[in-house]
Structures are given as C-alpha cells and as structure tokens.
Automatic annotation (TrEMBL):
Ranges for domain Histidine kinase: 238-451
Organism: Dyella japonica
Entry annotated with the keyword Zinc: no
Protein name: histidine kinase
PROSITE patterns membership: HAMP, HIS_KIN
Length: 454
C-alpha cells in the first residue's frame, strides 16, 4: 500500500503540521506582546503639558511639584517654564541645561533626541489665564531593550515553543504506535514459544487503522494455526489408532506365511499381506489428501468447471463398479452449471460420493444423481437406497475416520465423506446428509455459481 494512501501517514503529517502552525501562531502572539512590553508607548507631550498647566493653575508651584514627582515615578522628568524660569525643580544633565535657553527662546514645540536613549520635549501651553508657559520634559523610557536583544528573545521563544509542541505530538504519535506494536511483538514471542492461544486482542483494537488491521490479521493467523495444529494432532491420533489393526494383522499374516508348510499356503498368506498393504497405502493417501484440504489447499488454481458435465463423467466412471453389483445409476441433469473451482478436487469429491452410495446400496439397488442450478447456486445430490444412518450418527458422518454402526456392511476407512466436505468448504459451499423416506441416505451439496453464470 502506498504511504500516501495510509491514514497513519496522514495522521502523523497533519499532526506535525498542526503542531508547527500552533507553535508559530502562539510564538507570534507572545512575541507581539513582548515587543509591546519592551517598547515604550509614544508619549502624548501635548496632553502632558495640559496636565502640568492644570496642576499649576490649581495649586501653584506646590501642586506642580507634586505633579512633577508623579511623572518622575513614571520615568518622565518634567516641569513648566515661564519667562525662561522653572516653576518647580527639575533635574537634567548640565549639557541639556546649556542648550535649554536656546530651545525655549524659539517658542515652538520640539521633540529632540540629543543623546542616545534620551528624549527632550518642549511644548507650548496656554493656560486659562491667557499666559503662555512651556513644558520641558526628559524621558529615558522610550526603549527598554535593544533591537538585537528583542530578536534573540523572539527566536528563543519560537524555538522553545516549536520543540515543546513537536515533542508533545511526537510523544503522542509514538505512544499510539508503540503500544500496539509492543502487544503484537509480545503475542508473536508467546506464539513462537509454543503458546498457540496467544492473541493481540485488546491493545491492538485501539491502534491506528493499519496496526489494528495487522493485529486482526495476526489473530486470524494464530487462530488458523491453532486450529490446524489441533486438527493435525487429532488426525494423527486417529490415524495411529486406525493403523494399529492392519499392521497387527499384517504382522500376523507374515508370521503365518513364514510358518507355512507348503508354497501354496505361503502364497495365500502373501496375497492377504498384499491386500493389507494396499489398504494401508489407500488410507495414507486419503489422510494426506485430507490434511492438504485442511490446510486450505494452497496453490490450487481455479477455473470455470461445468458441474453437470463433471457429475456425468463421474457417473460414467463408476458404471463398471455399479454394474458388477447390479446397481442402477440414474442421472437427472439440467442445463450446464458453471462454478469457479478446481476440477480435480471436485471430481474426487463426486467420485467419493458416488462410490459411497454404491458401497452401501444392496445388490440390485438404485442410486439417484441430480444436478441443477437454483438461484445463484448449483445443487448436487446423491441418494442411495441402502440402510441409511442412525439419526444420532448423522452429525458425525463428515468427521475423519468415523465409521458408523453400519460400516461393517462395506469396506472403507471413514475418510471419503470427510474429504468431500473439505472440498466443498474450500469452494465456498455447504454439504448436508439426511435419511429419506423409504430408506436410504441423501447427501446434498451446494456450490456458488461463477459470476458469469449467475
């Protein structure tokens, strides 16, 4: 999958972009506030002059002195001059005092910066008494920090905020990814140690979509492996039990052959031994086929298969065996019904069904085969007129190596129907067995039709 189509990719990208934008916006806000704090607001010298004149007219030199003291606390040294004389004390550098007379004589408003970080203001103000006085003020509070210092602080704020937000987002993303990865890793180690019941479960369900899917796939894989191992163990136990009897008989037959008194008697025993070996070979082959089907038939190619034609061919091949027992095979077929599957596997399933029906039918009996398309599925049924199966045993018919109470009537290993069921399941179908009125067993399977045939 392309990383650009991954929700985790976009989640990480958008998170980091949002963190950077948030850091940039907050940094600009804080820097603006800092600049406003570090840079003095422009002084309205006309308003200051009016305030000084009002204080003087209200209380004379004493009130003006109090006003000047208040201004000094705010960083401004100010007073009023009249006819070149200060109306209240003012502190100013000697160099300023030398030039002050010249600025007062010009009788105009001026704001000067005679020296760095020192501003001088001379403002004309006319009182309510009609007399003109002059405000003289000095300010050293225009700039609290140098420009270079403000730039350094701005960069420090911006860098610190970026690191903070990116660190928080990185921690959040790493935490959301690390926990499910750790849970998957622990489940993998447990499974590698032989604990087949290990699952990711809870922590994997709260992960991002990709990791949640990985956790689900791991759990599905673990469940499949556990089921296969359990099945293989069960089949191995059943097979070991089933092989014990023919091996014991084979051992006895060979022992009797060695003790035979005549070649004819020994040949008879050797023939029986050959039959037992053939049975063992058939059983082993069927068990291998069953095991392969249980494993999901990996690598099996699918192709269009006409089920009706395939059932007809299986009936033709079984004709000789049916004829030997005087059993009639009746095929009821419809128009072609095509499924998507493996022809060899389906052929083996039909052969097993027909052979099983012939095996349990009495001599002179009748076996009915039917195939027809119904809706989006093809329905295949095989019915014999044998003794049927006790109702209590029908649920176990498709279990490997199961031989019911009627198994003594015919030779077999109890694997044929189990193989048929695995083939049908591998093709997405269903299979059922039931006794029918009048005697006999009906085995019915349904397979989905190929899309072009629906």
């Amino acid at each position: 999958m392309s990383p650009f189509k991954s929700s985790l990719y976009w989640r990480v990208l958008i998170s980091f972009c949002a963190a950077n934008l948030l850091a940039l916006g907050l940094g600009i806000f804080l820097t603006q506030s800092f600049i406003e704090y570090s840079t003095a607001v422009e002084i309205n010298w006309s308003a200051v002059a009016q305030g000084a004149d009002q204080a003087y007219e209200r209380g004379g030199a004493t009130a003006l002195a109090e006003w000047s003291l208040q201004q000094r606390r705010e960083g401004i040294e100010a007073t009023l001059f009249e006819n070149g004389q200060a109306l209240s004390p003012i502190r100013m550098p000697p160099s300023v005092q030398e030039s002050l007379k010249t600025w007062l004589d010009e009788k105009r408003d001026v704001v000067l910066q005679p020296w760095p970080n020192l501003y001088l203001a001379v403002q004309q103000v006319q009182g309510s008494d009609g007399r003109v006085r002059q405000l003289v003020a000095l300010s050293r509070t225009h700039s609290r920090l140098r420009q270079q210092t403000r730039q350094t602080i701005f960069l420090a704020i911006q860098g610190g905020l970026s690191l903070l937000f990116i660190g928080l987002v990185g921690w959040w993303v790493a935490r959301s990814v690390a926990k499910p990865v750790d849970a998957i890793s622990k489940a993998t180690r447990r499974m590698a140690a032989g604990e087949l019941s290990a699952r990711v479960e809870g922590q994997g369900r709260r992960a991002p979509e990709e990791l949640r899917q990985l956790a689900n796939d791991f759990d599905a894989m673990a469940e499949r492996i556990e089921a296969l191992v359990a099945h293989d163990r069960s089949v191995l136990q059943d097979l070991s039990h089933e092989l014990r009897s023919p091996l014991a008989r084979l051992h006895l037959i060979l022992d009797l052959a060695q003790r035979s008194s005549t070649p004819e008697e020994a040949a008879r025993y050797f023939l029986q031994a050959e039959q037992e070996i053939s049975r063992l070979d058939d059983m082993t082959g069927e068990m291998l086929a069953l095991s392969r089907l249980e494993g999901g038939i990996p690598g099996v190619n699918r192709e269009p298969v006409d089920v009706v034609a395939l059932l007809r061919e299986s009936a033709r091949r079984a004709g000789l065996e049916a004829q030997a027992r005087n059993i009639t095979l009746e095929l009821i077929e419809s128009a072609p019904a095509v499924v998507s599957g493996n022809e060899l596997l389906l052929e083996r399933a039909f052969d097993n069904l027909i052979a099983n029906a012939i095996k349990f039918s009495p001599r002179g009996g009748h076996v009915e085969l039917k195939a027809q398309a119904v809706g989006g599925r093809v329905d295949v049924s095989v019915r014999d007129n044998g003794p049927g199966v006790p109702e209590a045993e029908i649920g176990s018919l498709f279990r490997p190596l199961f031989r019911g109470s009627n198994a003594s009537r015919a030779h077999g290993h109890g694997l044929g129907l189990a193989i048929v069921q695995r083939v049908v399941k591998a093709h997405g179908g269903d299979i059922h067995a039931a006794n029918v009125d009048g005697g006999g067993l009906l085995v019915r399977l349904q397979l989905p039709l190929a899309p072009s045939s629906g």
